[in-house]
Design a protein that fits this description.
The complex is a heterotrimer of chains A (about 130), B (about 475) and C (about 500).
Chain A (H helix, E strand, L loop, with lengths): L11 E3 L3 E6 L2 E6 L1 H7 L2 E4 L7 E2 L4 E7 L3 E5 L4 E6 L9 H4 L8 E5 L11 H8 L1
Antiparallel strand pairs in A: 1-2, 2-3, 3-9, 4-6, 5-8, 6-7, 8-9
Chain B lengths: L8 H11 L4 H4 L21 H12 L9 E2 L12 H7 L2 H4 L11 H18 L3 E2 L6 H16 L3 E5 L4 H14 L2 E5 L1 E2 L2 E2 L1 H7 L4 E8 L9 H10 L3 E6 L17 E5 L15 E5 L12 E5 L5 E5 L6 H4 L12 H38 L5 E2 L8 E5 L5 H13 L2 E2 L2 E2 L10 E5 L6 H24 L5
Parallel strand pairs in B: 1-15, 3-4, 3-7, 7-8, 8-9
Antiparallel strand pairs in B: 2-10, 5-6, 9-10, 11-12, 13-14, 14-17, 16-17
Chain C lengths: L31 H4 L17 H12 L23 H7 L1 H4 L11 H18 L3 E3 L5 H18 L6 E5 L5 H8 L3 E5 L9 H7 L4 E6 L12 H10 L3 E5 L12 H4 L3 E3 L20 E3 L11 E5 L10 E5 L16 H39 L2 H4 L12 E4 L1 H7 L3 H10 L6 E2 L8 E4 L7 H20 L1 H5 L12 H6 L8
Parallel strand pairs in C: 2-3, 2-4, 4-5, 5-6
Antiparallel strand pairs in C: 1-7, 6-7, 8-9, 10-12, 11-12
The chains are: A alpha+beta (about 130), B alpha/beta (about 475), C alpha/beta (about 500).
């Protein structure tokens, strides 16, 4: 378990505790340290299929711990081009390394302007304090 | 204060003072006066234990149970012999009175029982996974329908007319909520009509339902029916008699997705229809959509082997509106009786019992078939139950025959006419291990005379009382 | 049983051992191949245990000793109503006239059973204040499903296809799960700062697309909602049905009736207020009572009575009526959990009207007293009540200050209670309260037990102030200690490997 709260500077954050790393016309999504801490140890994660359309602010899959199920919200709209298959066998990566090995999906974003609705790191940290 | 509460006058005084109110009435001050009952409940005054016992005993005396008559009633619930060890175990405080095992550290007994039960059901059905029980047979069938709906969302269910009438009706009731239609496939020669089955299948069928053996006691040939359904992408659900699975090919080897059934015959009382338990088992791929509690094995912090309720995120208390079902309370005590019964029978005992039942049922079918006018409704292989036509032409005649037999202290079976208008003078006869050859011969004798008397009455055109 | 030798029944015994001896073959020993073709039969027997009777008995008796149970100790589980289970009920339920009665016995030979059912129905109708009862549903959530399907039938009969059901955000999980199974959309209604339904939110959400509001009163916070008449009016004004979840009936029997509050459908949990033993997770029974408007749609069959009151000197006779054209149909096989009816009926016969009222008065007294004792011992400084109001039969505390100040969570407190010989209260429900602890002592506990429990909680907090690690590592004195639930969920092992 990642014991220290961390929120990388270079990411953008969604108020429902998801992050986005934008690189050109693709973005990688995952859930924040705060989200994995609230959930507890993740036991099950099933990504959506490649090719699925995701919509900003809408859930695109779920993440399960022993005692809870949480919707995972898309910070941006787009089409899923890659999913993190490794999480099938080792979902705990979401807890241990939520921004690295715990990445969930890569998406080809459909509308770059949507990033304006997301929060910078400091604004997100202020939100959860 | 009653014999179950303990607040004496001095207790009450001290308690009210500690709370800071002058009377118990004040504790109900939030209830608006117009909603307060201003008269006692219209329920008779309470009685002492001995008086209550007498009252319930006198009511019991007004029932004609299998203790007083030789019963051949079946149709999903059977008068089997329940070993004394089950009465003893179910009466123990530690099994009778605890709650659902949400605190596993102090519930290892109950959780291990669930784990053993799940193992036994998987063995019996040939399935990969089983839950820790559901309410009973027909609602288990409906739950399987919900699993199919969650899996493929298709709008049609196909149901063999051989499925228990209560199961078919329950599936229809639940289907109103699911938004699925339920279509019946007729029987031919006592088993599901394979041609009609094939014709009805399509890409919009979400699940198909069969019984094994079916309601008329016939052993169905599941494999080809299941294969046909799977070819069209439908889930295959079989409702099976667990005792018959002692000698029949388990549905798990026949291409079946979900196997459910009524568990009463495994060590549970008749109890006028309940409580009993339903079992629910499925292929691995359906695990996360299965309803009900499931116990799983794990280790504690000191490395000890232990058991917990697991995969709880399927369930209502966590997933709420997206749960795989709304089940909270199951049938833990009845499932305990089930696994103890299966362990009591054991690996050799279960097939022995099942073979005994099959032989006695075959003998009984022959004996009744020899009665003038009586013919078996089908010649299919049977395991414990069969159906005959009494040759009377209508259902009312069957009721009169049953009444005559009651006079001779025999319950000859269940009249089929109401559930199966196509067999108006049908009778369903079940043979439990408590029915000896002598009992069967006696049935043949009594039923023979009753049928003959009814035919005579018909011939003379008069109505007999 | 030594902790290191946990073996399932499958890991015991030896080939050839048996507890069952088949009756002698008395019919012709025809070959089984002749009777059932080999291709329809098992090739291998099911791999069940092979044990003698003594082995069987010892295994399960030892297992039983690894369970905590209500006969042995206090079980203040909120929302579960863990009251004493009288053994008289087991004795009467075991009478062969009740227990060995086949469900398809002709009604003329089952008048005793039908009388039990009728009398139970009348008593439940009187307690609920609603005239028509079905005993068929098998558990509370089954009763809820019945209620929502009845609602659907009611609206459909009026040519309406409503799509939504309202539930408060404090609702038990079975409520929204049931709503989805019945094909409706769940809409949550907020709770106000006094712990009751937020009337403004309800008004905003109650429209003609709402089929039903599912509520319990007192609610899952243990609080009576005094606005219930207004709530009923709001829902009825848009033509909706009001459904009562009877899980908390223990607080109001003989004092207030859901029918009088305006509810149209009520379900009872016989395994709660009517002391059907919990059995480690069932069986239960969830009868429903409904108004005249809902009666036509009741599950079938419906129990009916002939004779007697017709004044023609005919004997009273009961019969199951299947001719119910508007019925929603069956929810299960046969008539319901009759064994539970016998027990609950015996309970009602024992208590009578005054005894039932005593149950509720004492349940509410005990809960308020326990809360007062916890206050007096300073427990509520760290675990304050979520709402500062008189509670009914249960109350909810929040462990948030305790978590902040002592560094132990409600979960840790609960686990440490196991070492003190108590089953903990309900934890983390209702969801509305942070670090919730929902406590329901029930009416069958003595004042001394409540005093001792309060003292134990205070002792655990004192201990935690000194060393929070103790509670975090609890329990210590139980057959197993904390179990790895994450591993059980990630890599499920759900059966014994054979």
């Amino acid at each position: 378990m990642a014991s220290q709260a961390s929120y990388p500077e270079e990411l953008l954050y969604h108020r429902e505790h998801d992050w986005a790393r934008i690189e050109g016309d693709t973005a990688t999504f995952g859930i924040t340290w705060h989200a994995q801490d609230s959930l507890g140890e993740v036991v099950f994660f099933e990504p959506p299929a490649v090719g699925t359309t995701v919509t900003q602010d809408q859930p695109y899959t779920e993440v399960e711990s022993v005692k809870a199920v949480s919707d995972v919200i898309a910070p941006l709209s787009g089409e899923v081009v890659e999913v993190n298959e490794a999480l099938g066998k080792a979902p705990e990566a979401i807890n241990d390394d939520p921004y690295g090995a715990g990445w969930m999906v890569k998406v080809r974003i459909s509308d770059p302007d949507q990033a304006q609705a997301l929060l910078e790191r400091d604004a997100y940290v202020a939100l959860i304090s | 204060m009653t014999r179950y509460t303990a607040v004496t006058d001095s207790d009450r005084e001290a308690m009210l003072e500690a709370i800071g109110v002058a009377s118990i009435d004040e504790l109900f001050a939030e209830i608006p006066p117009e909603l307060r009952l201003t008269r006692p409940l219209d329920i008779p005054a309470g009685l002492g234990e001995a008086e209550v016992y007498e009252h319930l005993r006198s009511l019991a005396a007004r029932n004609t149970s299998a203790e007083e008559v030789i019963s051949f009633l079946g149709a999903g619930m059977y008068d089997g012999y329940i070993p004394a060890v089950i009465d003893m175990l179910l009466g123990r405080s530690e099994f009778l009175t605890p709650y659902t095992p949400y605190q596993p550290e102090i519930s290892q007994g109950g959780l291990q029982v669930m784990f053993e039960y799940q193992t036994a059901i998987c063995e019996l059905t040939g399935m990969d996974v089983s839950n820790a029980s559901v309410y009973e047979g027909p609602s288990a069938v409906a739950s399987a329908g919900y699993l199919a709906k969650l899996t493929n969302g298709r709008p049609r269910f196909l149901v063999s007319r051989g499925l228990h009438p209560h199961a078919r009706e329950t599936l229809r009731t639940y289907s109103v909520g699911f938004g699925t239609s339920v279509e019946e496939i007729a029987l031919r020669g006592g088993v599901t009509d394979a041609e009609a089955w094939e014709k009805a299948l399509g890409e919009d069928v979400g699940a198909v339902f069969l019984a094994q053996p079916n309601f008329l006691g016939a052993v169905e040939d599941i494999e080809p029916l299941a294969a046909a359904a799977r070819e069209h992408g439908a889930l295959v659900v079989v409702s099976a008699d667990p005792l018959s699975l002692g000698i029949l090919e388990p549905p798990g080897s026949q291409g079946v997705d979900v196997c459910v059934g009524e568990g009463q015959t495994l060590g549970n009382r008749l109890d006028f229809g309940g409580p009993s338990f339903g079992f629910f088992a499925a292929r691995e791929e359906h695990l996360r959509r299965m309803p009900g509690r499931i116990a799983g094995e794990t280790r504690d912090v000191d490395g000890r082997r232990g058991f917990v309720l697991t995969l709880q995120t399927r369930e209502q208390h966590i997933r709420r509106e997206k749960a795989t079902s709304n089940i909270c309370t199951a049938q833990a005590l009845n499932a305990l009786a089930g696994v103890v019964y299966l362990s009591w029978l054991g690996r050799r005992g279960l097939p022995e019992l099942a073979e005994l039942l099959a032989r006695r049922a075959a003998y009984a079918r022959e004996a009744l078939g020899a009665i003038e006018g009586v013919t078996p409704l089908h010649e299919q292989p049977i395991t414990r139950e069969f159906a005959v036509s009494l040759g009377l032409g209508d259902a009312a005649g069957v009721q009169r025959v049953i009444a005559r037999c009651a006079g001779d202290r025999i319950e000859p079976g269940y009249a089929l006419g109401r559930d199966y208008p196509e067999y108006p003078d049908g009778l369903l006869v079940a043979v439990s291990e408590r029915r000896s050859r002598e009992d069967i011969d006696h049935l043949a004798d009594v039923l023979g005379r009753a049928v003959a008397a009814e035919r005579t009455a018909n011939a003379t055109g008069g109505m007999q009382a | 049983m030594s902790a290191d030798t946990v073996r399932t029944i499958f890991e015991q015994g030896r080939p050839g051992r048996r507890a069952f001896e088949a009756p002698p073959a008395d019919v012709p020993e025809r070959s089984i191949d002749e009777l059932i073709p080999p291709r329809l039969r098992r090739r291998e027997p099911a791999r069940l245990p092979e044990v003698s009777e003594p082995e069987l008995v010892r295994h399960y008796v030892r297992l039983s000793r690894r369970n905590f149970d209500l006969d042995s100790g206090f079980y203040p589980l909120g929302s579960c109503t863990m009251k004493h289970n009288p053994r008289l009920h087991e004795r009467v339920a075991a009478l062969p006239g009740h227990s060995r009665l086949h469900p398809l016995t002709d009604h003329s030979r089952a008048q005793g059973a039908l009388t039990v059912m009728w009398n139970l129905e009348r008593a439940l109708a009187e307690i609920a204040g609603l005239p028509h009862v079905s005993l068929q549903p098998s558990a509370g959530s089954h009763g809820e499903l019945a209620g929502v399907l009845l609602t659907r039938a009611y609206h459909a009969d009026r040519g309406e296809q409503r799509r939504k059901v309202l539930t408060p955000d404090t609702a038990h999980g079975t409520n929204p799960a049931t709503v989805t199974m019945a094909g409706y959309e769940v809409v949550k209604v907020g709770t106000d700062e006094r712990g009751g339904v937020d009337l403004d939110d309800l008004r905003a959400k109650a429209d003609s697309d709402v089929a039903c509001l599912m509520l319990t009163n007192p609610n899952t916070l243990g609080l009576f909602d005094p606005n219930i008449a207004q709530i009923a009016a709001i829902v009825h004004n848009v033509g909706g049905v009001l459904y009562y979840d009877g899980a908390n009936l223990n607080a109001v029997m003989g004092i207030s009736r859901p029918g009088d509050m305006g509810f149209d459908i009520v379900h009872f949990n016989l395994h709660k207020s009517f002391t059907q033993p919990h059995g480690g997770g069932g069986p239960g029974s969830g009868p429903i009572a409904v108004s005249d408007a809902i009666e036509p749609y009741l599950p079938r069959p419906v129990l009916t009575r002939h004779g007697g009151s017709e004044g023609n000197g005919s004997a009273v006779e009961f019969e199951l009526d299947y001719d119910r054209p508007k019925s929603i149909g069956r929810l299960r096989g046969f008539q319901g959990n009759y064994g539970c009816f016998v027990r609950s009926y015996a309970y009602i016969c024992s208590l009578g009207a005054a005894g039932l009222r005593d149950v509720s008065e004492t349940a509410v007294l005990n809960a308020n007293y326990l809360l007062a004792r916890l206050r007096a011992l300073g427990v509520t400084e760290l675990l304050p009540p979520a709402y500062e109001r008189i509670c009914m039969h249960e109350f909810v505390l929040s462990g948030a200050p305790m978590k902040q100040q002592l560094g132990i969570r409600t979960l840790d407190l609960a686990k440490r209670m196991l070492d003190f010989g108590y089953h903990p209260p309900t934890v983390y429900f209702p969801l509305l309260v942070e670090e919730a602890l929902l406590i329901e002592p029930t009416e069958t506990e003595t004042r001394e037990t409540l005093d001792e429990f309060a003292a134990a909680v205070a002792a655990i907090l004192t201990e935690a102030r000194e060393d929070p690690e103790i509670a975090r590592g609890a329990p210590y004195d139980t057959p197993v200690r904390r179990l790895d639930e994450a591993a059980a969920a990630k890599n499920p092992v759900l059966r014994q490997a054979l």
